[in-house]
């Protein structure tokens, strides 16, 4: 039994090493075509990103002229003039030095009022701009998937819910309620109907994780209406990244489609991670370690949630 306890502790320790607080602040490259083959670019890179600032790679047919970066909000912004010999359509743009914790959304507005949007990250550092017009803003779909999978606070909250929800029907309703609430507050925040300070919301999100930790420790089981709690806390989690999504900008003429694809991405991300979490819980139960797994999960969520709460409150007051 001692060996099993040590094994669980080691797994949880390894998980905690990769659970540093990570705000949703993707980089954003915005390129506007002024006239034929002349473009104005704006490279928005998160200030808090670990490591050096990522660099862009433009097509050889383009001559970039950069200005000194300046700071605005949570971003370091570099303005670049591109003088190209031919259109950016059918060519590629890349990035080097991008952090593993950050994606880079690419938005290109052509002078014929068409738009291209895509996503670059550490695994896919080069993006090819299609020669034809893009119909859907699929970049926001991949941004949603990466945000859910790469966002430890949201993953920990979903993991905590799985320890509290009893029954497959309740589980489906709970996850759906969390996603719906997530979508509502994201939409009303991006639309400027209601906008709350992101720092305060991030601190409250940490509190939701601490609350789940206490509930898991008490071995609570929500059999009647677990989706009500998930819906209420989901409202906070939606506000949590809406501010950053607004900062990087969403095209007004594709706002609803962008939000739709982003939320579909979040749902897909949840569907990827939930079976993995459930398999882990099932294995621990089969090993007759249910009590230990609940205790370990409670301490894991409570410890990380408390650390994030202190970190985020200090960030607000500093």
Q: Can you offer a commentary on this structure?
A:
The protein has helices at residues 2-17, 138-150, 152-164, 168-190, 198-217, 226-248, 255-286, 290-317, and strands spanning 27-35, 38-46, 55-57, 62-66, 70-72, 75-84, 92-96, 104-109, 115-120, 126-128. The chain is an alpha+beta fold and 318 residues long. The protein has two domains: 2-22 and 151-317, no CATH class; 29-135, no CATH class. Strands 1, 2, 4, 5, 6, 8 and 9 form a seven-stranded mixed β-sheet that branches. It has a three-stranded antiparallel β-sheet with strand order 3-7-10, with no helix packed on it. α3 (152-164) runs antiparallel to α8 (290-317), α4 (168-190) packs antiparallel against α7 (255-286) and α5 packs antiparallel against α8. The N and C termini lie far apart (46 Å). Residues 1-19 have low confidence and may be disordered.
Share in helix: 40-55%
Classify the beta-strand content into a percent band. Answer: 15-25%
Number of domains: 2
Shape: elongated
Secondary-structure element order, as H and E?
HEEEEEEEEEEHHHHHHH
Number of helical segments?
Answer: 8
Task: Outline the low-pLDDT stretches.
Answer: 1-19
Q: Structural class, from secondary structure content?
A: alpha+beta
Q: How many DSSP-defined strands? A: 10
Give a short account of the largest sheet: 7 strands, mixed
Query: How far apart are the termini?
Result: 46 Å
Task: Please state the CA-atom Rg, rounded to the nearest Å.
Answer: 21 Å
Q: What's the overall average pLDDT, rounded?
A: 81
């Amino acid at each position: 039994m001692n060996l099993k306890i040590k094994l669980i502790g080691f797994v949880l320790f390894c998980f905690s090493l990769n659970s540093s607080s990570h705000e949703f602040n993707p980089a954003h490259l915005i390129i506007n075509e002024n006239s034929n083959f002349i473009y104005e670019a704006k490279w928005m890179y998160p200030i808090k990103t670990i490591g050096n600032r990522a660099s862009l790679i433009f097509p050889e047919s383009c001559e970039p002229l950069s200005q000194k970066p300046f700071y605005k909000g949570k971003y370091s912004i570099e303005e670049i003039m591109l003088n190209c010999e031919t259109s950016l359509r059918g060519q590629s743009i890349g990035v080097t030095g991008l952090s593993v914790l950050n994606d880079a959304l690419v938005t290109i507005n052509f002078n014929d009022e068409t738009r291209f949007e895509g996503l670059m990250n550490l695994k896919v550092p080069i993006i090819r701009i299609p020669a034809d017009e893009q119909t859907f803003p699929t970049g926001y779909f991949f941004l949603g998937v990466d945000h859910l999978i790469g966002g430890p606070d949201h993953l920990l909250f979903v993991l905590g819910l799985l320890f509290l929800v009893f029954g497959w029907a309740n589980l489906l309703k709970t996850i759906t309620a969390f996603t719906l609430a997530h979508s509502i507050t994201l939409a009303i925040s991006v639309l400027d109907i209601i906008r709350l300070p992101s720092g305060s919301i991030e601190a409250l999100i940490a509190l939701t994780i601490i609350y789940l930790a206490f509930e898991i420790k008490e071995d609570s089981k929500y059999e009647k209406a677990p989706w009500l709690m998930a819906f209420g806390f989901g409202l906070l989690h939606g506000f949590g990244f809406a501010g950053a999504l607004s900062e990087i900008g969403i095209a007004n003429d594709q706002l609803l489609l962008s939000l739709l694809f982003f939320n579909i991405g979040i749902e897909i991300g949840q569907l990827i991670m939930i079976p993995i979490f459930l398999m882990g819980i099932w294995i621990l139960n089969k090993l007759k370690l249910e009590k230990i797994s609940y205790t370990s999960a409670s301490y894991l969520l409570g410890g990380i949630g408390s650390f994030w709460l202190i970190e985020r409150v200090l960030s607000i007051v500093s």
